[in-house]
Amino acid sequence: MTKLVxxxxxxxxxxxxxxxxxxxxxxxxxxxxxxxxxxxxxxxxPDIILLDVEMPGKSGYQVCTELKNIEQTKDIPVMFLxxxxxxxxxxxxxxxxxxxxxxxxxxxxxxxxxxxxxxEYRQHSIKLKNDVExxxxxxxxxxxxxxxxxxxxxxxxxxxxxxxxxSLSNYFLSFSGx
Length: 178
Prior knowledge:
Rossmann fold
């Protein structure tokens, strides 16, 4: 499966460097500012978002916070690519919801390695979420098939199809007689 990566940066040169660094590794979508990036994220649901900190309009921190507040995009890992290397800036990125933070200029191999890790993490998270949903459905089915709650649920289901007093009383007697 090809990884889909959204790069949000106002610098055309950075987009070119990202394109060259990730050629053949993943499919890229580009956005030149935060608002366009938010629209692209919701439209394409990428696997990873690469995000610059300093952009005209919304900062990368604001964009990241918004992404994390949108149900559709909240689970997409965000990696900041920034020229700001100071610890308070990196911490601010993590506090905004970023999964990773790389300082520009970056090494192509390191970028690919970090994208690979985030991608695998996201795939495991999606599988775990699906497994939890299936387990909840199984538990609900098991609950309705056993015990008093299950008997009540079966009775309600059966009586829904009763079209006369005789069948309704038969259902009731089988329910109360255990």
